[in-house]
Design a protein that fits this description.
Layout (H helix, E strand, L loop, with lengths): L1 E4 L5 E4 L15 E6 L3 E8 L3 E7 L5 E4 L7 E4 L5 E4 L1 H12 L8 H11 L4 H4 L1 H4 L2 H8 L3 H16 L2 H14 L11 E5 L6 H8 L5 H8 L6 E4 L3 E11 L2 E10 H10 L4 H21 L15
Parallel strand pairs: 1-3
Antiparallel strand pairs: 1-2, 3-4, 4-5, 5-6, 7-8, 9-12, 10-11, 11-12
Length: 304
């Protein structure tokens, strides 16, 4: 797939015949972005599940760079010249790369774990079925919760994120039937500092919680802390570590959801947090799956 960065900051799709001479030998699963100053950015798949990006001048030297979601990328040519790719363009390039790659993770370790989690599901108990990845995915395709769980577990195993697997298990065990609509879905924010960022605070304020309310919550000596407003419940808790540092989880639950989980099902506040967070993990996993090959038949490149 070949694209060109235009002078107005937008990218356009080019035919394969536009590929310049002098590019490094890379696999067919690739993305090429033609840049000003006779430079280009190349992405390709390595070791089946990993993306690799290099940039440079055709016919000259190329160096490796790293593209991160929601972050811009600066490519320095000399002391006064650089090319800046916006976070939107970075996402488009990565999306184009992912659309040619198989989703990361391994099928068999995923279903072996799911055999213990979804004990009553026939797909994961029949050995002749569960070893066939294509067959399993086709059989669970219309089962949203099962599909969400499969991809959440698969991606978490790939990343070594066993805390996420525990959260998804808690969601399945306690509340897989609760968050069944946008109005009932939890909202979750994270912060390394006492208060979340400005955007997150604005979202929390829109739910009828004032900044002073947040200050009162963080001033408490023990967590978790729960605060009620006319829209629902806001929960604050310290939760583990992120990169070696303690971080905070802020979570909002609509009143009917809180009442069901806390009053009727008698869940602890910690289990409520884990359950809602596990649901969020599963939703994000399903969305992430949609970026990879075979999940969609066409690729839409939006203007940055």
């Amino acid at each position: 797939m070949i694209f060109e960065l235009m002078s107005n900051g937008r990218i356009v799709v080019l035919p394969e015949t536009a590929l310049p001479d002098g590019l490094p030998e890379i696999p067919e699963q690739r993305v090429v972005l033609l840049l000003p100053y006779n430079r280009c950015l190349l992405g390709h798949c390595i070791k089946k599940n990993y993306e690799r990006w290099i940039w440079g001048r055709p016919g000259g030297e190329f160096e490796e760079v790293f593209l991160y979601e929601n972050q811009s990328l600066s490519l320095v040519i000399d002391e006064i010249t650089k090319i800046v790719l916006t976070s939107g363009i970075v996402s488009q390039m990565r999306g184009a790369m992912f659309s040619q790659m198989s989703p990361p993770g391994e099928h068999l370790p995923t279903v072996l774990l799911l055999r213990g989690v979804l004990k009553s599901h026939p797909v994961f108990q029949d050995e002749k079925i569960f070893q066939n990845e294509s067959l399993v995915l086709s059989l669970i395709e219309k089962e949203e919760i099962t599909t969400m769980t499969y991809w959440a577990v698969r991606f978490s195993l790939f990343r070594g994120d066993f805390d996420a697997i525990a959260r998804v298990k808690t969601w399945l065990r306690t509340s897989s039937d609760i968050f069944d609509s946008q109005e009932r879905a939890p909202k979750v924010w994270f912060s390394l500092t006492p208060l979340p960022g400005g955007k997150e605070i604005a979202e929390i304020e829109s739910l009828s919680f004032a900044v002073d309310d947040l200050h009162r919550m963080i001033s408490q000596n023990a967590f978790p802390v729960v605060l009620f407003s006319k829209t629902g419940y806001l929960v604050l808790s310290d939760f583990g570590s992120l990169g070696g540092a303690t971080f905070r989880v802020w979570m909002f639950l609509p009143s009917p959801v809180w009442s069901e989980l806390r009053d009727r099902r008698k869940l602890t506040i910690r289990d409520i947090l884990l359950s809602a967070w596990g649901y969020r993990d599963a939703v994000q996993a399903l969305a992430e799956r949609g970026r990879y090959a075979a999940a969609k038949s066409t690729i839409l490149i939006e203007q940055a």
